[in-house]
Design goal:
single chain, Rossmann fold
Length: 94
Amino acid sequence: MTSQSSSAPTRFIAADGIRFAYRRFGEPLGTPVVLLQHFMGNLDNYDPAITDALATGREVILTDNAGVGLSTGAAPETVAGMARDAASVMSHRM
């Protein structure tokens, strides 16, 4: 597995009728760190200086919100909606 966000392939999972885009990289040891983007941020808005540093010694998963970037569906209008989508993504095997 790659240790840099720039070389991690974009992958997709289907959860609750939405196709979510994500990238997974780093050391696959223990529980991965899942980073959630701000409301309209996408996979390319994460700072690689931070994400690559986090990937040293652990696995990192970056996500797109529903309706943003490469993910389908409607963008949630509330934090509760974003949380629901994040829980939906994390409950699926990636």
